[in-house]
From TrEMBL:
WW domain sequence ranges: 11-44, 52-86
Gene3D superfamilies for this protein: 2.20.70.10
Source superkingdom: Eukaryota
Organism: Agrilus planipennis
Gene: LOC108741974
Cellular component per GO, a single term: cytoplasm
Protein location: Cytoplasm; Nucleus
Name the record gives this protein: WW domain-containing oxidoreductase isoform X3
């Protein structure tokens, strides 16, 4: 029997996994079942980063009792251990010129390369 995700989103994390962010904005994944971490998404194998500053009204602090990073939303008077920028994380490009190109069945690029 195949272990299929509960949703159709390949970006959704498997049960027991959590997405976290380092101080420099690199996204990593924590597996609470095995107590391991990794840089690549457990389903897609992609790396992600968060860009830019925290949203307006947010502050990054260290919880003195635990030493963990926490985020304070001063606008809505709440705190969380989850970086609010995670919702907008983007795939990290391996090369500066790295881009995705969809296959187009009408493209003649392959034919032009093979012709002499």
């Amino acid at each position: 029997m195949m272990n299929l995700p509960e949703s159709d989103s390949e970006d959704e994390l498997p049960p027991g996994w959590e997405e976290r962010v380092t101080g420099d904005g690199s996204v990593y994944y924590a597996n609470h079942l095995t107590k391991n971490t990794q840089w690549t998404h457990p389903r897609t194998g992609k790396k992600k980063v968060v860009l830019g500053d925290l949203p307006y009204g947010w502050e990054r602090c260290i919880d003195k009792s635990t030493g963990k990073v926490l985020y304070i939303d001063h606008e809505n008077h709440r705190t969380t251990y989850t970086d609010p920028r995670l919702a907008f994380a983007v795939e990290e490009k391996e090369h500066i010129n790295d881009f995705r190109q969809r296959f187009d069945a009408s493209s003649t690029a392959l034919h032009e390369q093979t012709q002499e």
